[in-house]
Design a protein that fits this description.
Blueprint (H helix, E strand, L loop, with lengths): L1 H58 L17 E6 L9 H9 L5 E6 L1 H9 L3 E6 L7 H17 L4 E11 L2 E10 L5 H10 L20 H5 L2 H68 L1
Parallel strand pairs: 1-2, 1-4, 2-3
Antiparallel strand pairs: 4-5
Length: 292
């Protein structure tokens, strides 16, 4: 009977676990929908901003000056790693860290506790860390971006790169690293943004008309690149949040399904053990009756 009691205790424990993972799955699903909507809604604005900045750079090439456009030798890379604050999201963080661990000579800035913990344990140079809530408003991200921009302008880092999980769909998230600074052309960025918007080549028509900028291109260039960098990193954080909640929802659903499968197996074991115990009791009663 001890074996039966152990099986009943395990069934109860697994059922409790299934209830917890089911609740976490529902919470992640509700957050996932909001995060996905925000990430998808921000993509057209990022593309438009990149197109305007690219047109400005193209028209003013050789005449307009900005620190972000100056070529420099990249002696120390500056890498922003966008991970999660919490776990239970499958291989999302480990896939991200697999790329970060191969980078040695770099200064890391972290968004998300998991990236700070991992890189600190790995002995990497973490110069700052920031936290962003699930609501992910622009002001939260702007603090981290301004820190990186100041470090770039002071020469503490020679590039501004972002390692994050790009949201593809609910079942797929892709770890990517993109360089934002320095830039002389935004062709790669535009191609990436158009790919995210799933634009066909026929939709990617170049506008041959010349843009008129007011007050003047140099005045706009003094403000627009910083705004572009802030918006682009904000969009990457939105993509990372959508990836996080999607991965967590899938992981919790898988855990719930596994728990239910385990309960079925344990219930079968319990029924077999209970049947064996009943059969044993019947045999003992029959043997006792025959002996009398």
């Amino acid at each position: 009977m001890k074996g039966i009691r152990d099986i009943k205790r395990r069934i109860k424990s697994v059922k409790n676990t299934a209830q917890i993972t089911r609740a976490m799955q529902l919470v992640a699903a509700s957050k996932m929908k909001r995060a996905q909507d925000k990430a998808l809604a921000g993509r057209p604005y990022s593309l438009l901003l990149a197109e305007i900045l690219n047109a400005l750079i193209t028209q003013g090439k050789g005449r307009l000056k900005h620190p972000f456009m100056e070529e420099r030798t990249i002696a120390k890379r500056g890498i922003l790693v966008i991970a999660t604050d919490k776990g239970l999201c499958g291989p999302l963080n480990s896939n991200l860290f697999r790329q970060a661990i191969d980078i040695d000579d770099a200064a890391f800035i972290c968004i998300g506790k998991k990236s700070t913990q991992f890189l600190s344990r790995a002995g990497r140079n973490v110069i700052a860390d920031f936290s962003v809530s699930d609501h992910t408003n622009f002001n939260e991200v702007r603090v981290a971006v301004e820190f990186m921009i100041n470090a770039y302008l002071k020469g503490e880092i020679d590039s501004l790169e972002v390692l994050f999980s790009r949201f593809i769909n609910t079942l797929k998230q892709e770890p990517v690293i993109e360089q934002l600074l320095p830039f002389s052309s935004l062709d790669a960025t535009l191609e990436s943004l158009r790919k995210r918007l799933q634009m066909q080549e026929s939709e990617q028509l170049e506008d041959a008309r010349e843009m008129l900028f007011e007050p003047d291109p140099q005045a706009i260039l003094s403000e627009l690149p910083s705004l572009f960098i802030k918006q682009e990193i904000y969009q990457m954080v939105l993509e990372a949040k959508a990836s996080e909640h999607s991965a967590r929802m899938v992981a919790m659903k898988s855990a719930t399904d596994n728990a239910k499968s385990l309960v079925d197996d344990l219930t079968l074991q319990y029924n077999k053990a209970r049947q064996a115990a009943i059969t044993q009791e019947i045999l003992e009663i029959a043997a006792s009756t025959a002996a009398n």
